[in-house]
């Protein structure tokens, strides 16, 4: 059984480092105006982007740059400059969506691999073959493609890498080809500025053109989120997918999502891949971990079922649901933490750290770290800064860094079941 790459989102430099430390084999990120995630692209400067590439390579991992927006004529010259910048950064691959941009990339940086974005909607072996002949070393498959078709593409194009999404937001439109945001708010989805209009509440009406009578249509009392897709979650299918040997990379969506989201999803899918390789696959373990996240409800999408077989892909009730846990703090350096929600003295908080981390039990004047029911917990006797300032409790918005009882692995989170 082939071990696939685990590809995680890097919305900024901190999230990039979290993804790498939590087990990603590769990350994808963007800077500038040519990605489909303008908000995350703005979180990188050119300097921090270069620093991210260097950090990734020093850790022995790969860095893919997303330039998968759909450019207008007036942007082509700037697109050329941007490709030159990414070439000089020595990224490992470009993720792009159009034949024209692919030709530019091959002309300016022929030494860098080309990955074809899911925006290109590859669903069959003929399209895959054509793009491979044009220079794509990898296809990021359309989310609507099923596993049998992925296997067929691999059989007929054995030298072509195949990447699929395994987790994250699902688009109401066909592989993200959506105009709703452009119509309602002038923000163009295919140029990186989707306003997520499909997550809004809507009311439907029927109008009689003869007398002007207007009737509101209700599916049920809560059925107003008519375009709101649930989140993709293929964790329970990872072993089955790996057994096909057709997929080279598992991709997690979410460059605009939280630091905890990056850590939690990367950790869960790292466990799933490694357990499958070692014959210890346990769906319950990954399910419990992923359900700690805020979500829109989960679906296994269309890879293992055809779209018309599905009746659970939409969440008509709410655009966001609470997960099972609340994140209370993060420690970037392992010595102090920053509060995300609240920390109270003499209250246990679960420590979530990268896999295979070493956490030692300790009991001192600041607090204690101990293990219970297979989980590492921390309780604080004192909430104090390095300079000795003390607090009775800490709430989100407080910018002080609070000492931990002992050093934890970097990018550890403190969380609590809701």
How would you describe this protein?
Helix content is 26%, strand content 24%. The chain is an alpha/beta fold and 418 residues long. The protein contains eleven helices and 24 strands. Helix 1 (13-21) packs parallel to helix 3 and helix 6 packs across helix 7 (147-156). It folds into two domains: 5-175 and 228-309, Aldolase class I (TIM Barrel, Alpha-Beta Barrel); 325-417, Elongation Factor Tu (Ef-tu), domain 3. Strand 20 and strand 21 (390-391) form a beta hairpin. Keywords: Hydrolase, Protease. GO terms for molecular function: peptidase activity. InterPro entries: Peptidase_U32, RNA/ubiquinone_mod_enzymes. This is Collagenase-like protease.
Structural class, by secondary structure, is: alpha/beta
Q: Enumerate the spans where pLDDT stays under 50 for 5 or more consecutive residues.
A: none
Total number of β-strand segments?
24
Tally of individual helices:
11
Helix content: 25-40%
Compact description:
This is Collagenase-like protease. It comes from Campylobacter blaseri. This protein has 418 residues and is α/β, with parallel strands linked by helices.
Can you give keywords for this protein?
11 helices; RNA/ubiquinone_mod_enzymes; 8-stranded parallel barrel; 24 strands; alpha/beta; Peptidase_U32; TIM Barrel; peptidase activity
How would you summarize the topology of this molecule?
Elements: E1 5-9, H1 13-21, E2 26-29, H2 38-41, H3 46-58, E3 62-66, H4 76-89, E4 93-96, H5 99-108, E5 113-116, H6 125-134, E6 136-140, H7 147-156, E7 161-168, H8 180-185, E8 204-207, E9 214-217, E10 231-233, H9 238-243, E11 249-252, H10 259-277, H11 283-290, E12 298-299, E13 325-331, E14 336-339, E15 342-344, E16 349-352, E17 362-363, E18 367-372, E19 375-380, E20 383-384, E21 390-391, E22 393-395, E23 402-403, E24 412-417
Parallel strand pairs: 1-2, 1-11, 2-3, 3-4, 4-5, 5-6, 6-7, 7-11, 10-12
Antiparallel strand pairs: 7-10, 8-9, 13-14, 13-24, 14-23, 15-22, 16-19, 16-24, 17-18, 18-19, 20-21
Helix pairs in contact: 1-3, 1-10, 4-5, 6-7, 10-11
């Amino acid at each position: 059984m082939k071990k696939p790459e685990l590809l995680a989102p890097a919305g900024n430099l901190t999230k990039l480092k979290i993804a790498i430390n939590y087990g990603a084999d590769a990350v994808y990120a963007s800077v500038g105006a040519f990605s489909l995630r303008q908000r995350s692209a703005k979180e990188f400067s050119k300097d921090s982007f270069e620093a991210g590439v260097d950090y990734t390579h020093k850790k022995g991992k790969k860095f893919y740059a997303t330039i998968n927006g759909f450019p207008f004529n007036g942007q082509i010259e700037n697109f050329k400059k941007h490709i030159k910048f990414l070439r000089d950064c020595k990224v490992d691959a470009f993720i792009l969506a159009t034949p024209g941009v692919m030709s530019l990339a091959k002309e300016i940086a022929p030494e860098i691999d080309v990955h074809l974005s899911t925006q290109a909607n590859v669903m069959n072996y003929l399209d895959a073959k054509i793009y491979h002949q044009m220079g794509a070393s990898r296809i990021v498959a359309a989310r609507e493609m099923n596993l049998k078709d992925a296997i067929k593409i691999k059989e007929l194009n054995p030298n072509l890498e195949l990447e699929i999404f395994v987790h994250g937001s699902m688009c109401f439109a066909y592989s993200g080809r959506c105009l709703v945001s452009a119509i309602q708010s002038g923000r163009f989805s295919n140029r990186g500025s989707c306003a997520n209009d499909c997550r809004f509440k809507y009311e439907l009406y029927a109008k009689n053109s003869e007398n002007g009578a207007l009737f509101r249509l209700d599916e049920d009392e809560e059925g107003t989120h008519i375009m709101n897709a649930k989140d993709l979650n293929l964790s329970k299918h990872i072993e089955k997918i790996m057994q096909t040997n057709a997929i080279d990379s598992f991709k997690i969506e979410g460059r605009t999502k939280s630091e905890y989201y990056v850590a939690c999803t990367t950790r869960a899918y790292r466990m799933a891949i490694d357990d499958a390789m070692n014959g210890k696959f346990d769906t319950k373990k990954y399910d419990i971990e992923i359900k700690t996240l805020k979500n829109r409800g989960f679906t296994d999408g269309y890879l293992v079922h055809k779209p018309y077989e599905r009746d659970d892909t939409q969440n008509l009730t709410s655009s966001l649901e609470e997960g099972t846990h609340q994140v209370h703090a993060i420690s970037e350096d392992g010595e102090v933490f920053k509060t995300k929600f609240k920390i109270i003295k003499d209250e246990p908080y679960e420590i979530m750290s990268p896999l295979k981390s070493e956490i030692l039990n300790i009991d001192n004047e600041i607090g204690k770290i101990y293990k219970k029911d297979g989980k590492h917990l921390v309780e604080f006797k004192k909430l104090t800064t390095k300079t000795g300032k003390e607090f009775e409790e800490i709430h989100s918005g407080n910018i002080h860094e609070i000492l931990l009882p002992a050093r934890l692995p970097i990018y550890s989170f403190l969380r609590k079941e809701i």
